[in-house]
Fold this sequence. Notes:
Blueprint: H1 3-7, H2 19-71, H3 73-92, H4 100-113, E1 117-123, E2 127-128, E3 132-143, H5 145-156, E4 162-171, E5 180-191, H6 194-202
Helix pairs in contact: 4-5
Amino acid sequence: MTLDELRQLDFKDLPNLALGPQLASLLLLVILIVGLAYYAIFSGIQDQISALQTQEAQLKDSYIDKKRQAVNLSALEDQLKQIDSSFGALLKQLPTKAEMEALLTEINQAGIGRGLQFELFRPTPEVRTDQMAALPIQIRLSGSYGDLTAFVNDVAQLSRIVTISDISLTPNGKPGEDKLLLQATAKTYRALEAEEQTAKAGK
């Protein structure tokens, strides 16, 4: 069957046509149906295959990452134990709430023991984080340079952590006297107790 014959083909008159045109028409119809079925069914399947291939690549990456973590699990557990141990040792250096008053007395005694004169020793309100509280103490005391440096060293040697910051030194006394005025912020820290952490979490 030629192209011109195909164009002139009248499908209403198909039963009256010769066997050749009937077979050609049937073949054309089958090709058309198969093509439409392929487009309707297999194109959707192809999209699913593409999506599954993307998911497969993601799962492979996730598997490799988890495998790497599993291989290093023992080392990570050892590292976590070391961190817990170090953190526990640091917490022991922090005063408890009950020990704060004694620590303040120790800081005061460190100055008096060096012959320094306190003009100001004022604890300010605590500054709290999730697990710790910092207690800033405004201090102002006068004495010789050597006594002031010895005081700072004594505070650094206390059994509990105390830092001194915002240090200001100015002359204090008659001309020729070796007297200085030290103004600074001493800060000590304590771990929040269990009930304080619970109360903070509940807010």
